[in-house]
Amino acid sequence: MSLSIERNVYSEYAEKLEIIERLCAQPITEEVHEDIIQTLDEIHQNLSQCDTTAAKTNMFAQSYLKELQEKAVFLYGKVDDSFHQHEIDVIKEETASLAVTVKQKDLLRIATVLESLKAHINHLLETYSPALSERRVLVYAKMTLENAEALLQGQIVQELDLDIDEQEIEGILEELAEYLGNNDKVSLSLLWKRLSPVQKKLVMGYMTDPQDLLSCLLHNIEGSADYEQVFGG
Question: Are 109 and 101 in contact (CB under 8 A)?
Answer without folding.
Answer: yes
